[in-house]
Amino acid sequence: MSPIAVYALTKAGVELGCRLTKELGADLFVHKRCPGPEGAMQFKSLRHIVENNFFGYDAHVFIAATGIVVRVIAPLISSKDRDPAIVVLDQMGKFCISLLSGHLGGANALARQIASITGGHPVITTATDTAGIISVDLLAKERNMAIGDIEAVKAVNGAMLAGEVAQVFDPEDRLGLVGQECHGEIMAVMVKSLEQWQPSVPGIRVSWEKAKYEPSILVLHPRCLVAGIGCNRNTPAEEILDAIKEVFHQNNLALASLKALASIDAKRDEAGLIQAAQVLKTELLFFNKEALGAILAPNPSERVKFHVGVDSVCEAAAILAAGKGSLIVPKTKTKNVTVAVALAP
Questions:
Q1: What is the distance between the alpha carbons of residues 37 and 267, in angstroms, rounded to a whole number?
Q2: Is the pTM above the cut of 0.85?
Q3: Beta carbons of 282 and 258 less than 8 angstroms apart
Q4: Which of 73, 112, 127, 195 is least surrounded, with the fewest CB atoms within 10 Å of its CB?
Q5: According to the model, what pLDDT value does residue 183 have?
Q6: For the structural domain made of 225-343, what CATH number should be given?
């Protein structure tokens, strides 16, 4: 399935929809009264087809009147960090409106892309875009960071729109703002320590540790932690998930900063491990014995070496998957699972 769905309600809309699906690699849905091309899916009710598709696609493009689209999607809207992108355009492609999830969903960028295809005009109404200031939620998306509390975005964006300077605590410079403060699209001042933090001033804290969420502090969790996993055969996903969550809890780590799970390639078909990665919505990486054996792990095990041929799985896999990053949590054992955590640079 394509990440984008295109809906056409008229003959002219179908013609434009064909162009867009070809350029965007999208799925095309056409109303039953319109002859559609081969491969297009027909529908009788726009409301019903959108209800079925809404969370199955990253973006929805409607060649239709904006009012119709608003009425159709209104009951389905959840929150700006969950809703898919919604773009609406007329059947001539003159105006491409970013209607919903402009930043996190990518509707603003998609509207611009569609306008470049149709020769039309992108219609972008988000305040930060019209003011020429990058929105912090878009910045987080570009830097692959998870937003701790989506409501705090308003405080920081609002401050910058008002011409105020937001404070930023980012000791590892994962946002890449050092040297760019108060220049270009970012109005920020870097805070070198939390002792310098001014509670009355909205700001951004970048951390892979757990943090208290406050209305005026936008906590961004960089996806930079890798959990190396070793497990006995047929270990249930629930047990693996519990072990990971407990390790993160005991070490004050933010689960939102989890970048990947990693293990030995002999576990490539381990159902519990695969399911755990799916639940956590994270990448699952595997390494062969040669790659793992080349890593000098702090806590080697003769028992592990006897069973799988290398003296470390979870620690070595975590270090490798983190780009030979630093091990911040050594091997932690439960009955059937071992977990180690490494920090990517």
A1: 44
A2: no
A3: yes
A4: 195
A5: 44
A6: 3.30.420.180
